[in-house]
Structures are given as C-alpha cells and as structure tokens.
Amino acid sequence: MHDNSWSANLEHEQHTDRERVLVDAVAAIEHTTPGNHVNPVAHGDHGHPSTYLYDGLAAEFGDAIDSEFVDRCGCGGYVTRVHVAE
User: Fold this and answer.
1) Distant-in-sequence contacts of 57-65, Cβ < 8 A, 24+ apart
2) Strands 65-72 vs 37-42: parallel, antiparallel or unpaired
3) What's the rounded mean pLDDT across residues 19-33?
4) Predicted structure pTM score
C-alpha cells in the first residue's frame, strides 16, 4: 500500500493494449490509501486517456475517486491524476 502520492508507470512492454493499462491502473488505485493520489502514466500511442481510461475507472470506483488529466510527460506519455477519496 502506498500511503503517499505516487506514480504508476504503465508504459512498459506489457502495456501494449489499453485493457492492460486499465487493469493495472485499477490495481494501482487499489494500492493507494484514501486521501492520496496516484498518477498512472500511459504510453502516448494509446491516445488521450479520456478515450479509454476514465470511463473504466469510473465504472470500477464510482465516486470513490476523482480523475483528472495532468499533462503529457517528456517521453510522450499521458499523466492522469487519480485522487482516492477519504
């Protein structure tokens, strides 16, 4: 469990499809204690996370999280910030 804010790198070779990115983003959120946030970073080739990630996270967690786009990182990936409600 992460009891602080942290980043989850979802740009590895095993993250070539969007479904795997969603599965691992869910796992990262489940390992973040309430009151903190995790920044899932997905590969730029997947496109903007609003097209595949946000709805899946909302379906999984509902009002227990709040997701927002942060920025693109220097490598071209997309950074999302997911706050876990207390």
Assistant:
1) 57/22, 57/25, 57/26, 57/29, 57/82, 60/26, 60/29, 61/26, 61/29, 65/29
2) unpaired
3) 97
4) 0.94
